Amino acid sequence: MRRLSLSLLLLLATTALAATETAKSYKLIAVEDGDTLIVQIGTQEKRLQLSGIDAPEDVTNPKLVKDLGRTGLSEETLLMLGKQATDYLKQLVLPGAKLRITGNLDSSDKYGRIPVVIYSDNHSSLNERMVADGYAVVMSKAILEPSLKQQLLQSQQQAQNSRWGLWGQHRQPALLWSGQATNQ
């Protein structure tokens, strides 16, 4: 009986410790672009990528050059889409906001960003909001929990059908950028 009580107590303590760790919040330093944030983690500022989604680029960089060749759109058009996506994310979260993060903070993508799901104070996933509001798309090769990926894909379809965000303001360029239309 004593062994069972000790095991139960250990299980409860571990669960409480895990809940505390997942509930930990981190301070937003800045929004870098439509899918990247700079967050204070411990004593370091880290670049976090909204996992599983992609927003248009708002500065000239290698990905923008790739998008230029792939879409046939002008640099001006692509940068305008990127600026709108970045501006929208900046409306969703302000510097100093406390963010909850789920994901492996020890891994990074090819751009040196840590792919995670980020929740704002109002408990909504920024990953979901950017897609649902029409300012980002689900990455086709995204490795996400299947239910999250399915929810993101449904949100993207709803945003496109409802012409929200970039899908309404700049539908044809957004479709070209997302790879869902061809430049004729």
Q: How is the main sheet built?
A: 5 strands, mixed, barrel
Class inferred from helices and paired strands: alpha+beta
Distance between the termini: 75 Å
Specify the CATH architecture.
Answer: Beta Barrel
The best one-word shape is globular
Beta content comes to: 15-25%
Q: Overall mean pLDDT score? A: 86
State the low-pLDDT regions, or none.
Answer: 2-23
Q: What is the domain tally?
A: 1
Broad CATH class: Mainly Beta
Number of strands: 7
The ordered H/E elements are HEEEEHHEEHEHHH
- Alpha plus pi helix count: 7
Question: Strand order across the biggest sheet?
Answer: 1-2-3-6-5
Helix content: 40-55%
- Radius of gyration over alpha carbons? 19 Å
CATH topology, by name, is OB fold (Dihydrolipoamide Acetyltransferase, E2P)
Please write out the topology.
Layout (H helix, E strand, L loop, with lengths): L1 H22 L1 E9 L2 E6 L2 E7 L2 E2 L7 H10 L3 H18 L5 E5 L11 E6 L6 H7 L4 E2 L7 H17 L3 H4 L1 H8 L6
Parallel strand pairs: 3-6
Antiparallel strand pairs: 1-2, 1-5, 2-3, 4-7, 5-6
Helix pairs in contact: 4-5
Detailed description of the structure:
Residues 2-23 have low confidence and may be disordered. The chain is built from seven helices and seven strands. It is globular and about 40 Å long. The termini are far apart. The protein has helices spanning 2-23, 62-71, 75-92, 126-132, 146-162, 166-169, 171-178; strands at 25-33, 36-41, 44-50, 53-54, 98-102, 114-119, 137-138. The longest helix is centred in the N-terminal third of the chain and has 22 residues, at 2-23. The protein has a single domain (24-178), classed as OB fold (Dihydrolipoamide Acetyltransferase, E2P). It is of the alpha+beta class and 184 residues long. It has a five-stranded mixed β-barrel with strand order 1-2-3-6-5. Strands 4-7 form a two-stranded antiparallel sheet.
